[in-house]
Amino acid sequence: MTAKPAQSDAQGAAPQSERREDILQVLEARILEAQHELAARSDAGEDVLDYLAHHGEPATRRAVAANIATPAKSNRHLADDEDEEVRAELARKIARLMPDLTAPEAQETLALTIETFERLAADQVPRVRAILAEEIKQLDCVPAQTVRALARDLEEIVAVPVLEYSPLLSDADLIEIIAEGKVHAALTAIARRKPVSPKVCDAITSSLDVSAVATLLANPDAKIRKRTLETIVDQAEKIGLWHEPLALRTDLSRRAVKRLASFVSTELLGQLAKRYNLREEVRQHLARQMRSRIEEKDEDSASASAAAQAEVEVAAAVGRLDENFIESAAESARREVLVLALSRLACLREEVVRRILLARSAKPVTALVWKAGLSMRAAFKIQRFVMRLPAHELLPAREGQFFPLTEDEMRWHLNYFSSAR
């Protein structure tokens, strides 16, 4: 009779154990919730935040890293945190800390914060460095040496914000970076600066980087010497990307205007005539050029079409009608070559391809390039150099390389233009 109660106790042990486990889980969850709440409070106290920085769960440490009240010693500890998101949150916060650290009594805090800043600038994960670069790109109160290191980072997402905006980069720094040529987008980023000095303009022009020079020409704050502009005009006849920004500049010499007028489109000739307070001699020269262009337009168009057709046929015959061919045609804005080549590669009628390019919309041309079996890189170049879409209308690659639209979306765009009349 004594064995039965023992059996009952054994049977009841499991439910009691389960209840205890449930209670412990609830307690643990509440502890974590309380820690996370404290980690985000500006009045939690330095000792509490430091404890949480060392012993909190990842989500708690992220909140501590984002907290502006976290002490400098805790920030320095979190700069070495194993969790990438913790370091990313700290990088987002760092710019808010630097401007207020100039008082003599803040020297220890300043030293720790600078050490934290430098540690984040050397982070092994490009995303963390990129966040830091974006946050401090316009500050003049951060270590110049570290800013120069960020400007030379091999990752474009890190270097470009600093190169475009940082006031701590001297002309000598920029010219040296241009000469090194390590980051493809570096020259274009420098060409967007406000302002760009004459010496830096000369260095960008000497690089012969087509995109960077086009960006420089379009920058009203680029102080390009007249002789440098004349050099660009002399080289511009075969570089369509330079024609429009040259025609829109207000500082061309009379010689440069006359030279430019000899090869730009009829539309740009009209803009040249409107933008400049030209002498009668130059006005007459432009008028002659415009009349001549209008008379020859049909003949030139037929000739260009025949040349484009021949170029595409030859490329196809030798097996070079590929990604490189399309990108080269896009970079030099050879629209007719692109129409014929994409029509052939995508197995679409030429009129459909023309409608897509004339639509000036990023999504249809992305679908067209996908149908042609090419990469998103080619689609982006067509958007920039041929369609000349403004920055806010450009459709970039997803994760740097993938098409940003689904296949169903791209088929819809192609069907829309194929059925349109």
Structural description of this entry:
There is one protein chain. By secondary structure, the protein is mostly helical. Among the domains are: 32-153, no CATH class; 321-419, no CATH class. It contains 24 helices and no strands. The protein has helices at 3-39, 46-55, 58-66, 72-78, 84-97, 107-121, 126-136, 144-151, 156-165, 171-180, 186-191, 198-207, 210-218, 226-235, 240-248, 254-261, 266-275, 280-317, 323-331, 335-346, 350-358, 362-371, 376-386, 407-419. Helix 5 (84-97) packs across helix 6 (107-121) and helix 5 (84-97) runs parallel beside helix 7 (126-136). The longest helix is centred in the C-terminal third of the chain and has 38 residues, at 280-317. The chain is flat. The protein starts with a helix and ends with a helix.
